[in-house]
Design goal:
It is a single chain. The protein is built from 13 helices and 9 strands. Helix 3 packs parallel to helix 4 and helix 9 crosses helix 12. By secondary structure, the chain is α/β, with parallel strands linked by helices. Bound molecules: iron/sulfur cluster. Iron/sulfur cluster binds next to helix 1.
Length: about 350
């Protein structure tokens, strides 16, 4: 059974980001979100899964689903993972703060990491996200969420470096680290993914410029003490940035544990190896919402055989953390970053 799972709960989104076409696709045809897994179906599915360490819930914009907080709360009660991670575009301030309060009231001992997207400072953010006023809403969301006094809530920021903002990367890093001062800050490189429906789009920043930005980010973030995020998580992040930097300069591929240690459940029930490779293991609806029946099926085994044979590479952070944890050869590097941070 997997250690970590991602649930992509909806194809609904209200932004038209330059790096992702989920919102554009939905706004052109809202029926793409018809027939998504229901709350009852999620509940049955969660009951079949058993234990998970780390769960990510995403979209689309997950808080566009009115029942989203209830879905997360049910998973927290049934599975009790160590960490629940939710990325959001921070446009639905009231729905998000109310939703977070509801989730916290039923969270138990799990930690809730809410990652707010920020791809620029001021109007640049609105431009990259295709949403006028998004930057002001981001600042309001941070203020409102910081009023929630609960040690289990970790407020994070997520920046995607693309050709639309990499030249201003340092401005974004300074703003986030000094003005927002989140407990967690993740920087990723824009990716072409089936999940984002952005195949063929020119979004990638230049490799040399991105490697320089990652170096500056690692240097700056080292100087800012982190609250809330354990040292072990920081070690995973350090290793992730070092891998991303290496792959940018010299893509060699690596052992991938998608479909072994992690997978993604898509809005209509398909289970993918991850949101980048997008190999389909099956659909939970075809297995009566019994996750182990799908996970140990012949179709899932075929996907695992293919992944074992290939050496692919990607910069998907969730997958990178799982790979680092499951690959014994990588553990000494993790240990090195853990000690160096002391
Ligand atoms: S990146 Fe997020 S907010 Fe932007 S269009 Fe895609 S799903 Fe929506």
């Amino acid at each position: 059974m997997p250690l970590t799972m991602s649930f992509v709960t909806t194809d609904r989104c209200n932004s038209i980001c330059k790096t992702c076409n989920i919102g554009k696709r939905y706004l052109e045809d809202p029926s793409v979100a018809d027939g998504e897994l229901t709350l009852d179906e999620y509940t049955t599915l969660f009951r079949s899964i058993g234990r998970l360490e780390w769960v990510t819930f995403s979209g689309g914009e997950p808080f566009m689903r009115p029942d989203f907080p209830e879905i997360v709360a049910r998973l927290a009660e049934i599975i009790e993972p160590r960490v629940i991670n939710i990325p959001t575009n921070a446009t639905l301030v009231r729905a998000t703060t109310r939703g977070v309060a509801k989730i916290l009231s039923r969270l138990g001992r799990s930690e809730l990491v809410l990652n707010l997207s920020l791809d620029g400072v001021g109007p640049r953010h609105d431009d990259v996200r295709g949403f006028e006023g998004n930057f002001a809403l981001f600042e309001r969301a941070v203020d409102e969420l910081k009023k929630i006094d609960d040690p289990r809530l970790v407020i994070g920021v997520n920046t995607v470096l693309s050709r639309f903002n990499v030249s201003e990367a340092e401005t974004i890093f300074d703003y986030v680290l000094e003005r927002v001062a989140p407990a967690s800050y993740v920087v990723e490189v824009a990716q072409i993914r089936p999940e984002y429906h952005n195949q063929g789009d020119a979004i990638a920043p230049l490799a040399a410029e991105t490697a320089g930005a990652i170096d500056r980010f690692v240097e700056k973030s080292r100087m800012h003490a982190r609250r809330g995020i354990p040292r072990l998580v920081r070690a995973f992040r350090r290793k992730y940035y070092s891998d991303v930097r290496r792959e940018l300069v010299d893509a060699r591929g690596h052992a991938c544990y998608s479909a072994f240690g992690t997978c993604s459940v898509m809005p209509h029930g398909e289970v993918w190896s991850n949101t980048q490779r997008a190999d389909v293991l099956g659909n939970v609806r075809d297995f009566g919402l019994d996750f182990p029946a799908l996970w140990f099926s012949a179709g899932a085994d075929r996907v695992r055989d293919a992944i074992r044979r290939e050496r692919c590479h990607c910069e998907t952070s969730n997958v990178a953390y799982t790979n680092a944890l499951m690959n014994l050869g990588e553990l000494p590097k993790l240990f090195y970053y853990y000690l160096r941070d002391a």
